[in-house]
Structures are given as structure tokens and as C-alpha cells.
Specification:
9 strands
């Protein structure tokens, strides 16, 4: 049986790991996670509640771990490194400090591990804006580090979660690296080819949803998820004095989940649904033509933590395991917003394996 031996950095709640586990099960391969790093103690609780980490190395804060080269050398050898490294430094919504920000600087922790352990492959995930940050200089430095400081051929591709059976608009860049002694060279990996390959997959272990009504949203939720009359005008407003954007609720394909969604941004940033949305005679065209005052009269709610996790490809048992560890809704919203979409990683890995860019023994 072929084995995918991997190390998950900046693990969050294990989106990469979940995808690898499911794909290995479907392809009759073995998934062997040798360790994981995660700074956030609450995310670590969720991670350990859902995966058997008994014999694995818990790296903790990757910056501190990689300060001592001996720590890296002690790691078991592995074939694949995955990392959803912090995106706050590169995001359109952040201060865009990039590699000058401490969170950006821990990118070099990945380089330290690649240099010592030299795995065959890596997949790094970040926000789509990474390539445009600082007029492209940030990505040039990342590219230089991955090809010169460590000897890898790399390619990158932007993938949208909504193309892979999860109804959420979430575009992320994936940087794929293959050790120079292996295969990738200057091959271009396209999103179109990955989507096409994904659509040929049959009988996978993934959760698929056509839209948010198709198994994501529950028609009946606790009253605490409904917006108060006081906050509705703010949530439904088309921006503010210095920021304008069309407010819209009841989206069949959800907006991008954010780590700060618990703060309840406006409906042009987060996801909200009215009770009308679930009625058999609901007509979205007619609903969206209503005035904000008329819409504000409706009962409107935010999505629940379970629904947020489902939008990222996790199932109800994953949610229950986390809740059994007394994880708060606040933390579960944050973890969902920070997670990598399971189906997207699965689709990318399946393509790389089927096209023999990645070869496992």
C-alpha cells in the first residue's frame, strides 16, 4: 500500500489533513501524519478532538520550534509538507505589511524545515492577493526562497472553493513545490484542468452541496442566531461613510467566510439569511428588489458554527467533537474562517497524483 507521509504546518483545524485522509481512503493509500504545528490553543483543541495525534510530534509555535535546528533534524522523514501560512500580512483587508510583519516572517520557518528535511513535495496556501502584494515583490521573495534557498521547482494556481462541491466563493492561491530531482519543471498547472479532473471523480468520501439549501443551512436554528431589531440597519446597510458596497442576503453561494465573522460585519461581507429563503415560493429576484426597510422587517439570522464548518467541507461529527471539548461558538467561527477548504485540497491532490506530478511509494 502506498503511503502519504506528511507534516502539517499552520494546521488550524486540519483542513489539509482531512483532505489527505479522505483522498488516501478513496485511493486505497495510507495517510501518515508525522506531526503538526499550530499556535492557537483553541484550534489545537479542535484538531486533537478530531484526529489521533498520539504518536505525532506537536510542534506548537513554529517560529520557536525552528529556532533550534536540532528540533527539525529529530523530525521523522516525510514526503509532503503542507502549510496554510498566515494570510493576514498579505490580505486585501489587512495592513499589507507582508514579509516585514512578524506573521509574514514566519514564512521562513517553512524554508528552514524544507532545507533540513528536503521532502519531495509541498503545498502552500494563502490569499489570492499574495501575488499582487507590494507590487509583486512579496511573491518574488517567496519564489526566490523556494527555488534558491531550497531547491524546488514550483507552480501556483488560484482555486475557488465553489468549483469543488462547497457553495462558498473562496479564491485562494496554492503554491506547489516538487524537489528538483523529481518532476514538475516548468509545467503550468491550471485551475481549469483541476476542475475538469474533479468533475470526473466518482464515489468520493467528500461532502458535496449544490448550494446552501442543499444540506448546509438548517431551517430551524436557535433564536440566538437571529439579528436583533437594533443591529439590522447596520448589518443591511450598503457600507458606511467611507466604504460603499452592495448589501445582499440569501446568497445561494455563500460569501467568503472570514475569521472575524463572529463580529457580524455587514451583509456585503458576511452571510445572512431570512426565513423567507426557505419557503417553497421564495423568489430571489423579487426579494432583492425590496427596499432595505422592507427587508429589515424580516426575521434574519447569521449562519451557525456548524453551517460554517460545512461550508469548509467538515461534517457534523467534526463539529460535535469540537463542542464536546467545550469550544465556544466564537472560536468555532474563527476556526472556520481560517480553515482551508477540504474539497479544494482534495481536488488539487487528486489531480497532482493522477497526473503523476506527485508520486508516493
Amino acid at each position: 500500500m502506498k503511503v502519504v507521509s506528511h507534516l502539517e504546518l499552520f494546521a488550524g483545524i486540519g483542513g489539509f489533513r482531512k483532505a489527505i485522509d479522505l483522498l488516501c481512503y478513496d485511493l486505497k493509500m495510507k495517510s501518515n501524519c508525522i506531526g503538526f504545528s499550530e499556535f492557537d490553543s483553541y484550534a489545537t483543541e479542535t484538531y486533537k478532538a478530531n484526529y489521533n495525534t498520539k504518536d505525532e510530534v506537536e510542534l506548537g509555535d513554529i517560529y520557536d520550534f525552528t529556532l533550534n535546528k536540532k528540533n527539525i533534524k529529530k523530525l521523522e522523514n516525510f514526503d509532503l509538507l503542507t502549510a496554510g501560512f498566515p494570510c493576514q500580512s498579505f490580505s486585501m483587508m489587512g495592513k499589507k505589511l507582508g514579509l516585514n510583519d512578524k506573521r509574514g516572517n514566519i514564512f521562513y520557518s517553512i524554508i528552514k524545515i524544507l532545507k533540513v528535511k528536503n521532502p519531495q513535495y509541498f503545498i502552500l496556501e494563502n490569499v489570492r492577493n499574495l501575488k499582487n502584494h507590494d507590487k509583486g515583490n512579496t511573491y518574488k521573495e517567496i519564489y526566490r526562497s523556494l527555488t534558491e534557498d531550497v531547491d524546488y521547482n514550483i507552480s501556483d494556481v488560484v482555486l475557488n472553493t465553489s468549483d469543488f462541491g462547497l457553495p462558498q466563493v473562496r479564491r485562494r492561491i496554492f503554491i506547489i513545490g516538487v524537489c528538483n530531482k523529481n518532476r514538475l519543471s516548468d509545467k503550468v498547472i491550471s485551475s481549469e484542468d483541476i476542475v475538469k479532473n474533479f468533475n470526473t471523480i466518482k464515489n468520493s468520501s467528500l461532502n458535496y452541496y449544490k448550494n446552501v439549501k442543499d444540506g448546509i443551512l438548517n431551517q430551524s436554528v436557535d433564536e440566538k442566531y437571529y439579528l436583533s431589531e437594533k443591529i439590522k440597519p447596520t448589518i443591511l446597510a450598503d457600507g458606511s461613510k467611507n466604504y460603499k458596497s452592495k448589501s445582499m442576503i440569501n446568497r445561494e453561494i455563500a460569501r467568503t467566510l472570514t475569521a472575524s465573522m463572529v463580529k457580524m460585519h455587514r451583509a456585503n461581507q458576511d452571510n445572512y439569511y431570512s426565513d423567507d429563503f426557505f419557503k417553497d415560493d421564495y423568489d430571489d429576484d423579487l426579494f432583492q428588489k425590496k427596499s432595505l426597510n422592507d427587508i429589515a422587517k424580516k426575521r434574519i439570522r447569521k449562519i451557525t458554527p456548524l453551517e460554517a464548518l460545512k461550508l469548509q467541507g467538515f461534517d457534523e461529527s467534526f463539529f460535535i467533537n469540537a463542542k464536546n471539548k467545550n469550544l465556544s461558538n466564537h472560536q468555532l467561527y474563527k476556526q472556520s474562517g481560517n480553515a482551508v477548504s477540504v474539497n479544494t485540497v482534495y481536488a488539487l491532490l487528486d489531480y497532482l497524483i493522477r497526473k503523476k506530478f506527485f508520486l508516493f511509494k
